[in-house]
Amino acid sequence: MNTGVEDEFRSLMIRALEGGLDKKGMSRLTALCEEHPSLARKFGQQVEVDRFLEVALRNLTDRSGFSRSVIQRIGDEREDASPFVASVMGRVERVSRRRTRWFTAAVGLAALVVVWLGLSFYVSGTAATLHRGDSAKWLTPPAGESLRAGTRLKLESGLAEVHFGNGAEVILEGPADFEIRGRDEGFVHQGRVSVRIPEKAVRFNLGSPGGTVTDPGKAFGLHVARDGETEAEVFEGKIRVRPGDGEKAVTLVSNEKFISSGKVWWKGGGIDANAFVTSLPPQSPRIPEYAHWALDEGAGTATAARGKLIAGGPRAADLRNIGGLPDALPEWVDGPYGKALAFDGLGNALETHYPGVVGDAARTVAFWLRLPEDFDSEQGYGIISWGDLAEKGNAWQISVNPYVNEGPVGRLRVGIYPSLVAGSTDLRDGRWHHCAVVLYKDERNGNRIPALLYVDGKMEATASKGVFTRIHTSSEEGARPVWIARSLRHDEPKRSRGTGFFRGDLDEIYIFDGALNQRQIEDLMRFNTLFPKSY
Fold first, then answer.
1. How far is CA 48 from the centre of its chain?
2. Strands across the sheet with 395-400, in order?
3. Mean pLDDT split into 10-residue runs, the chain, 535 residues
4. Model pTM?
């Protein structure tokens, strides 16, 4: 395409959008769009911008909500020195009835071009799609998978993944309030999101109270606190952030962050990519298989294991007292479903003969837990664990966090030696709580293991969303089978932390060979089983 054709097209397009193009000129513009698909795409995009401008200009003094977003977007385009946008901005004050009439004609032409060329660039009813919401607990459930501009997605907890029309992929973490503003634009009112931009996505704008991210690179995260404080972090590539006060955009590259608080903002380094969920748990066409200890015998020194993971395999688990009085076994008590077991934190344990889910396979562990109000955090280690401590990533353990320097004390905690993730709900209240821990591989980063914690059916707000390590739970000689209520290091006094045993009550212990979603964890809590509708 030569420069003369481009200049002619630009002149015709500007005149059409201004309302000064006659029928002959409109026919010529149509012919150029038919002959050159790239010009047709550009015309459709500029019509979209002009349509947004028309809405914004209905009240030039309105700088809130959608209008503010439109003015911001036009400003971004103008900074890039687009001749069309510069022309439009220079004529903002001269919008007339004639312009509106010809603008309508131009929209009709764009629609006609779409039909003729089979293009999908022009704005349809759908701006984005809800790609996955199976791990979400909604405050305002979306009407369906198709999301129009103006849709607000409000999450109480959990995760949801949204794919925009231009290809941008956004993961929301509740609590969150996220607005769809177009095929290539969103706004974070509150919450935490991670964004991945494929190469095919030409542009994507993500607004927030503290500033707008433009020209995004491959991946970044954005967090907006309740008070509006905003933090953007670059995982890969580079982004530009225009501060909310309208100052010139600042450029950030990998491992840099932008923070805005009130009218003050600054740029820094040292991001925490582990503070964001960048990949949702994998989906499976089947309900995961499981091993289950119901703990319903109510008497005796053993408890049966159920489920296909151990069918025809390991024998019943043994009630033990290790290193203490042999006869001081865990006590049978009433639980949420039938009977349960109480452990003293001094030597009580339940020793299974099941090796656990091995390798790097996704897994979920769920159980009911009751801690006494006078719980001693030194007796919080080793609720459930298995593996081999000889190498990093070969073992993992669920505990109650005992040390303030490792997270809030008394919270659910999972450790993949030597890293950990701690929850946010204080469990030291003498009441039964349903707990679940989900581990899986990050599909986009093989060196990262996401860890999602749930308490009473709700995903925990955690400072860390996983650990940067590999996981390869061992079942080789020397590896520990599934232990309940004792630490993997209980027999190493110099390396063991606390007493090495757990004090509290446990019931209905499940181990699944897959990552359960929000609905499945809720089903397990409410009904002590999973249903096919969970998928």
1. 30
2. 302-303, 317-321, 348-351, 480-484, 384-387, 395-400, 412-416, 419-422
3. 75 75 81 77 68 46 44 48 48 44 48 41 71 92 92 95 94 96 96 90 87 87 95 93 83 94 88 90 88 97 93 84 84 98 94 91 96 90 87 87 87 86 95 97 81 95 84 78 87 62 96 94 95 61
4. 0.76
